[in-house]
Amino acid sequence: MNQNIALIIAIAVPVVVFVALRINASLVFLSLCLGAVLVQYVGTEANDLIGLISPHAGSASDSTVKFALLLAPAAVTSLVTIFSVHGHLKNVVNLLPAVAAAALLVLLAVPALPPGLSHSLQHQQSWHYLSSFQAMVVAAGAVVSLGFLWTQRSFFQHQDKRRK
Fold it and tell me: Phi, psi (5° rounding) for residue 43?
Protein backbone atom coordinates (compact mmCIF):
# COMPACT_ATOMS: atom_id res chain seq x y z
CA MET A 1 0.00 0.00 0.00
CA ASN A 2 2.89 2.39 0.68
CA GLN A 3 4.08 2.11 -2.91
CA ASN A 4 0.54 2.84 -4.13
CA ILE A 5 0.65 6.08 -2.17
CA ALA A 6 4.16 6.76 -3.45
CA LEU A 7 3.03 6.45 -7.07
CA ILE A 8 0.03 8.70 -6.47
CA ILE A 9 2.26 11.31 -4.82
CA ALA A 10 4.78 10.94 -7.65
CA ILE A 11 2.05 12.01 -10.07
CA ALA A 12 0.41 14.66 -7.89
CA VAL A 13 3.55 16.58 -6.87
CA PRO A 14 4.73 17.42 -10.41
CA VAL A 15 1.21 18.51 -11.38
CA VAL A 16 1.06 20.91 -8.42
CA VAL A 17 4.57 22.21 -9.16
CA PHE A 18 3.83 22.75 -12.87
CA VAL A 19 0.61 24.64 -12.17
CA ALA A 20 1.87 26.61 -9.15
CA LEU A 21 5.07 27.74 -10.89
CA ARG A 22 3.24 28.20 -14.22
CA ILE A 23 5.72 25.91 -15.99
CA ASN A 24 4.78 25.08 -19.55
CA ALA A 25 3.87 21.42 -19.02
CA SER A 26 3.51 20.81 -22.76
CA LEU A 27 7.18 21.49 -23.26
CA VAL A 28 8.02 19.31 -20.26
CA PHE A 29 5.94 16.47 -21.75
CA LEU A 30 7.81 16.76 -25.04
CA SER A 31 11.12 16.97 -23.16
CA LEU A 32 10.27 13.70 -21.41
CA CYS A 33 9.68 12.19 -24.84
CA LEU A 34 13.14 13.42 -25.85
CA GLY A 35 14.57 11.90 -22.67
CA ALA A 36 13.01 8.55 -23.56
CA VAL A 37 14.62 8.72 -27.00
CA LEU A 38 17.98 9.56 -25.39
CA VAL A 39 17.68 6.60 -23.04
CA GLN A 40 16.83 4.29 -25.92
CA TYR A 41 19.56 5.39 -28.31
CA VAL A 42 22.29 6.81 -26.07
CA GLY A 43 21.73 4.97 -22.79
CA THR A 44 23.81 1.89 -23.56
CA GLU A 45 26.88 3.87 -24.65
CA ALA A 46 26.49 6.69 -22.12
CA ASN A 47 29.01 5.30 -19.61
CA ASP A 48 31.60 5.00 -22.38
CA LEU A 49 30.83 8.56 -23.44
CA ILE A 50 31.20 9.81 -19.86
CA GLY A 51 34.55 8.01 -19.64
CA LEU A 52 35.74 9.72 -22.83
CA ILE A 53 34.65 13.17 -21.70
CA SER A 54 35.91 12.87 -18.14
CA PRO A 55 38.37 9.97 -17.70
CA HIS A 56 38.93 10.75 -14.01
CA ALA A 57 35.25 10.42 -13.11
CA GLY A 58 34.15 7.04 -11.85
CA SER A 59 31.66 5.16 -13.97
CA ALA A 60 28.09 5.52 -12.82
CA SER A 61 25.63 2.66 -12.73
CA ASP A 62 23.62 2.01 -15.86
CA SER A 63 20.32 2.86 -14.14
CA THR A 64 21.74 6.16 -12.83
CA VAL A 65 22.91 7.24 -16.27
CA LYS A 66 19.60 6.27 -17.87
CA PHE A 67 17.66 8.08 -15.15
CA ALA A 68 19.77 11.21 -15.69
CA LEU A 69 19.32 11.03 -19.47
CA LEU A 70 15.58 10.72 -19.00
CA LEU A 71 15.19 13.60 -16.56
CA ALA A 72 17.79 16.10 -17.80
CA PRO A 73 15.78 17.54 -20.73
CA ALA A 74 12.64 17.85 -18.59
CA ALA A 75 14.52 19.46 -15.70
CA VAL A 76 16.18 22.04 -17.93
CA THR A 77 12.88 22.76 -19.68
CA SER A 78 11.15 23.21 -16.32
CA LEU A 79 13.78 25.70 -15.20
CA VAL A 80 13.68 27.63 -18.47
CA THR A 81 9.88 27.84 -18.60
CA ILE A 82 9.13 28.85 -15.00
CA PHE A 83 6.42 31.53 -15.00
CA SER A 84 5.96 31.25 -18.76
CA VAL A 85 2.22 30.46 -18.73
CA HIS A 86 0.31 33.72 -18.45
CA GLY A 87 -3.38 34.15 -17.76
CA HIS A 88 -5.78 32.30 -15.52
CA LEU A 89 -7.44 30.35 -18.36
CA LYS A 90 -4.10 29.19 -19.79
CA ASN A 91 -2.96 28.12 -16.34
CA VAL A 92 -6.12 26.05 -15.91
CA VAL A 93 -5.72 24.54 -19.39
CA ASN A 94 -2.05 23.83 -18.55
CA LEU A 95 -3.40 21.38 -15.98
CA LEU A 96 -4.14 18.84 -18.74
CA PRO A 97 -0.58 18.61 -20.10
CA ALA A 98 0.69 18.75 -16.50
CA VAL A 99 -1.23 15.57 -15.65
CA ALA A 100 0.00 13.93 -18.86
CA ALA A 101 3.61 14.96 -18.18
CA ALA A 102 3.48 13.71 -14.59
CA ALA A 103 1.95 10.38 -15.63
CA LEU A 104 4.53 9.99 -18.42
CA LEU A 105 7.29 10.87 -15.96
CA VAL A 106 6.21 8.05 -13.65
CA LEU A 107 5.75 5.61 -16.54
CA LEU A 108 9.26 6.32 -17.84
CA ALA A 109 11.08 6.80 -14.52
CA VAL A 110 9.96 3.67 -12.66
CA PRO A 111 11.60 1.22 -15.12
CA ALA A 112 14.77 3.37 -15.08
CA LEU A 113 15.09 3.12 -11.29
CA PRO A 114 17.48 0.60 -9.70
CA PRO A 115 16.15 -2.96 -10.18
CA GLY A 116 15.03 -3.59 -6.57
CA LEU A 117 13.02 -0.40 -6.25
CA SER A 118 11.64 -0.68 -9.77
CA HIS A 119 10.55 -4.27 -9.15
CA SER A 120 8.74 -3.41 -5.92
CA LEU A 121 6.89 -0.48 -7.52
CA GLN A 122 5.90 -2.46 -10.60
CA HIS A 123 4.13 -5.08 -8.48
CA GLN A 124 1.69 -2.56 -7.02
CA GLN A 125 -1.93 -2.32 -8.10
CA SER A 126 -1.64 1.39 -8.96
CA TRP A 127 1.31 0.65 -11.29
CA HIS A 128 -0.72 -1.97 -13.17
CA TYR A 129 -3.60 0.48 -13.48
CA LEU A 130 -1.33 3.28 -14.74
CA SER A 131 0.63 1.07 -17.12
CA SER A 132 -2.58 -0.28 -18.66
CA PHE A 133 -3.32 3.30 -19.75
CA GLN A 134 0.19 3.93 -21.06
CA ALA A 135 -0.81 4.27 -24.71
CA MET A 136 -3.65 6.62 -23.80
CA VAL A 137 -1.34 8.76 -21.62
CA VAL A 138 1.15 9.15 -24.45
CA ALA A 139 -1.42 9.76 -27.19
CA ALA A 140 -3.63 12.13 -25.19
CA GLY A 141 -0.60 13.90 -23.75
CA ALA A 142 0.85 14.45 -27.21
CA VAL A 143 -2.42 15.81 -28.60
CA VAL A 144 -3.08 18.05 -25.60
CA SER A 145 0.52 19.29 -25.53
CA LEU A 146 0.56 20.15 -29.21
CA GLY A 147 -2.82 21.82 -28.93
CA PHE A 148 -1.63 23.89 -25.96
CA LEU A 149 1.53 24.90 -27.82
CA TRP A 150 -0.39 25.81 -30.96
CA THR A 151 -2.71 28.10 -28.99
CA GLN A 152 0.32 29.96 -27.63
CA ARG A 153 0.99 31.37 -31.09
CA SER A 154 0.17 35.00 -31.77
CA PHE A 155 -2.44 33.92 -34.34
CA PHE A 156 -4.72 32.85 -31.49
CA GLN A 157 -4.23 36.01 -29.44
CA HIS A 158 -6.40 39.08 -29.57
CA GLN A 159 -5.51 41.68 -32.20
CA ASP A 160 -4.69 44.39 -29.61
CA LYS A 161 -2.22 42.15 -27.76
CA ARG A 162 -0.12 41.61 -30.89
CA ARG A 163 0.53 45.33 -31.32
CA LYS A 164 1.94 45.88 -27.83
Answer: -55, -40
pLDDT value for 106 = 94
Domain limits, the chain = 2-156
Q: Which residues have a Cβ under 8 Å from the Cβ of 17 and sit 6 or more positions away?
A: 23
Q: How far apart are CA 38 and CA 32, in angstroms?
A: 10
Burial class (CB in 10 A: 0-12, 13-18, 19+), 1: exposed
**Among candidate residues 18, 159, 128, the one with its CA nearest the CA of residue 77:** 18
Look up the pTM and report it. Answer: 0.85
Using alpha carbons, select from 139, 111, 99 the residue that is nearest to residue 14.
Answer: 99
Instruction: Name the band, by pLDDT with cuts 50, 70 and 90, for residue 122.
Output: confident
